[in-house]
Amino acid sequence: MDAETTDPLIATSPPPEAGTRPPTPASAHAVPTLDPEDLRPARPAAPAVSAVTQASCGCSSAASPGGTEVEADPALGYVYVLGRVHAVFPDLSVQHEFFQAAGAGGRTDSSDAEAMYRVLSAPENRYIARQMCFVLSVQDVATYILKPADPTELDELVEALRPVRDHRDLAVVVGRLGPVVPPGACQGLSVPEVSVLKVWAFDRKELIGAIERPGEVSKKEFARGATETLDRMLQLSDNAGTLPTARAVNFLTVRSQEIYQTSHRKREAGYILSGVEAVPSRLSTRSQTVVTVVFSYTHRQTNVVEKCFARVGVTGPFPYLVTAFQSYCNR
């Protein structure tokens, strides 16, 4: 794997867009508050979507794998989605060519996943990799066919196939939503195509290991709690990454250390992460679309709810932090 692929995904604060000021740390606010107006939809045409509810996938004229009509972001058509990448053979000719390359020299592999990665990552077999169908599955449901926007993305798609020990590998796919693939193009799959701009593949240990631990907490203890938070976030943010609200939640899941640090402190105080809600912010303008993401923590014994929030810009294909993770105060 090249250096870019192995770099930890999670970052304290992704770089802001050109011409904008970096987000102000939460500690710089004497009384951090969230304007209640943020919780009112800024534009009726962009409905508020809770991350607890599964978002639709695909495009406006397509059907989802479950057979229901799907809704894409009508304004931008960008995708920022979390899932797993696997490769399938588009037809028998490619399948037989793959098997011939896999058996050359008497090589054997301990699993089909290892064979797939070994063959497709070999430079001499790049012609086979170019013919493969790369599929992104969200919660084990085939959601997109991935098409590299340029040759470097093909290498990243192949790298996303690498087997991991615990079989809980993840990938972040950023791209543009395209049309639904014809049923006969990829083993009968009729799902939208995504033109891939960037793929990050990683396993959970890499993600958790990149987070700065708060205080004197042990590495093992923090990793256990952070893994629980990640599992909860993936459960709550089960979506296809097309709506602005879904892309904001997915971005924070893999790029915000503060979620995991705050969740650890809340857990020590007896709270659990109980909900994530994303709504369009009234700070949105014609040139910038902003989403407010609110995290709810419920006390195990008293059922008291405390909230934190962050604002995320989702104007372009790569979301960015607008307001740092901070406490939510009613007023």
Could you please describe the fold and organization of this structure?
The chain has 9 helices and 10 strands. By secondary structure, it is α+β, with helices and mostly antiparallel strands. The protein has one domain. The strands form 2 sheets. The protein has a 5-stranded antiparallel beta sheet. It has a 5-stranded mixed beta barrel with strand order 2-3-4-6-5. The radius of gyration is 21 Å and the shape is globular. The relative contact order is 0.20. Residues 1-8 and 12-76 have low confidence and may be disordered.
Q: In the residues, how many domains can be counted?
A: 1
Q: What's the number of extended β-strand segments? A: 10
How far apart, in Å, are the first and last alpha carbons?
50 Å
Described by its quaternary structure, the protein is single chain
The low-pLDDT segments are 1-8, 12-76
Main beta sheet: strand number and arrangement? 5 strands, antiparallel
Sheet with the most strands: spatial strand order: 1-7-8-9-10
Mean pLDDT: 79
- Helical/strand content category: alpha+beta
Instruction: Tell me roughly what share of residues is in helical segments.
Output: 25-40%
Number of helices: 9
Q: Calculate Rg over CA atoms.
A: 21 Å
- SSE pattern, N- to C-terminal: HEEHHHEEHEEHHHHEEEE
Strand content: 25-35%
Q: Which shape, going by the Cα principal axes?
A: globular
